[in-house]
Amino acid sequence: MDDVASQFIAANETAIQLTVALLLGALIGIERGWVARGKKSGERVAGIRTHSLVGLLGGIAALLAETVTVWILPLAFLAVALIALVAYRARMEQSQDYSITGLVGLLLTFCFGAVAVAVDLVLATACAVVTAVVLDNKQEIHGLLNKLQAHELDAGLKLLLISAVMLPLLPNRGMGPGEVLNPYEIWWLVVLIASISFVGYFAIRVGGTEKGILFTGLFAGLSSSTALTLHFARQSRRNPVLSPMLAAGILLACGTMFPRILLYATVISPGLVPQLLLPIALMGLTLYVPALVIWYRQRQALKVDHPLSQNPLELRVALLFGALLALIMVLGEWLRELLGEAGIYLLAASSGLADVDAITLSLSRMSLTTIDASTAVLGIIIAAAVNNLVKAGMAITVGTPPVGRRVAVPMLLSLVVGLTVAWLV
């Protein structure tokens, strides 16, 4: 049966491609026709029929370009563009509407038909759907743009600069003592910290104080709870009234770190999971439960939104944190070389000063070859405990006293519980 279907598709591939080109044009045409549904027949420059035919024309032009001459496709595109320009100019003189969105949509429809035949059906379909969504959400997009402030746009462009421009240019290889300094990975952490502050700012602005803080905490827990702790601790200084909810966000992010550790171990070395599950679960619960209690008690106090920090992108803090990470990596390598390969636990502790992901991945791999499972489990727990201790210190020193108290106590409890259970198991 599958062979028959494959033969049918192969025999009718061109017809299927042209049909898709026609349907993609109809998709754009439906949206355009809906927008202009109040106009009389003939007043619309291009509706569902015109867009459908333009999509089909793009497909036929691409087909002829393959079989006759490559010049047919660009000439057909220019012909459609000239006809559309004449029509839209005439309408502009009558309606005084200077928007060229409809013109661009019509030209894209031609391109989608050509892509469906000459390049890839799935790509053409995806582009057409995205175009239809953009065209259909004019009011929403303009509304968001009107709400955007100058410093927010500036922050977004800076984030794109450090992530899309600078990050790919950095070498992704080890340098320095023991080749522990990887410029790409260090800058990636800088981007991550900056991104968390950016996402947190807009999450609070869009979803409100309560939902925004909790969402940001969960988001950061899936990436970098250390960066979130630093950001929320600083925010508590600027908005002391938010200290309880910010503490709940920190605990939520730090608790979410433990399922992430378990996931890494499951993927790389499933044999670690039975010994790792109990201490990891208990350490996570000792943070989740206080976070939920704080949220439940403080949620009524956040019905009224509070002023936000005016800096959506904590770039200076991210750069300082990246420099600190590089220093810790160098010190950790020096300690490892000083004590030799037997210093697994010291290496785990020094790695946990900055991050738990790298040491979790390393020990999980090592458990398959060079160290036993119990050593790897205890090393991972030590790294997580030290990392929580560092974050508790951040909350105490950088944040307000209420944030420090609410974060430090569960963190210390999590540390004691995790180390005790890991040692006994």
Automatic annotation (TrEMBL):
The chain crosses the membrane at residues 15-34, 46-65, 71-90, 102-135, 155-174, 186-206, 212-233, 245-264, 276-296, 317-336, 375-395, 407-424. Residues 191-399 form the DUF4010 domain. The keyword Membrane applies. InterPro entries: DUF4010, MgtC_SapB_SrpB_YhiD_N. Keywords: Membrane, Transmembrane, Transmembrane helix. Residues 18-142 form the MgtC/SapB/SrpB/YhiD N-terminal domain. This is MgtC/SapB family protein. It comes from Billgrantia campisalis.
